Amino acid sequence: METQAAVPALLLALKDKKHLEVRRAAAVALDRMGPATRSHLQELKIGLKDEDMYVRCQILHLMGQFEEAASPAVPEILNRLREDPALEVRLAAIESLAKIGLKTNEIEGALAAASNSSQAAVRDTAKAALKKIRESKDK
Q1: What's 7-32 look like in SS3?
Q2: Domain count of the fold of the chain
């Protein structure tokens, strides 16, 4: 099956509220397809609100692969950084923002706040992301 042909079925599977393993498998498959799914960014945002942290992490990783093309999803990604209860999701949000690479006051502010987190992993990852964004835009 051609990659693009599989995307609609995987997006449908991502919405399957009854079967967690189906959503997880769909998220993994979409993540592996990477930038080929870029045109479905709006539909992929639903995965950021999934009850399962693994699905949220996979979708965040996928969005990071879109780089600046993921900019319409930045508000939702920032929301995951600020409000998600799962450490792994907050880390994935930070890494996604670093890969997207946009240097905006809102992104830098959120990363600066995260760099003061009481959680060492969040703090260190946010500092590295801030450095990456600032260096890539200063070139």
Answers
A1: HHHHHHHHCCCCCHHHHHHHHHHHHH
A2: 1
Question: Which residue segment(s) compose the domain that 24 sits in?
Answer: 3-138
What CATH number has the domain bearing residue 24? 1.25.10.10
Local structure of 89: helix, strand or coil: helix
Structural contact between residues 125 and 112, judged by C-beta atoms closer than 8 angstroms: no
Nearest residue to 95 via CA among 73, 120, 119, 62: 62
Encoding tokens for residue 117?
């987190």
Helices H, strands E: what count in the chain?
Answer: 8, 0
Report pLDDT digits (tens) over 35-66. Answer: 999 999 999 999 999 999 999 999 999 999 99
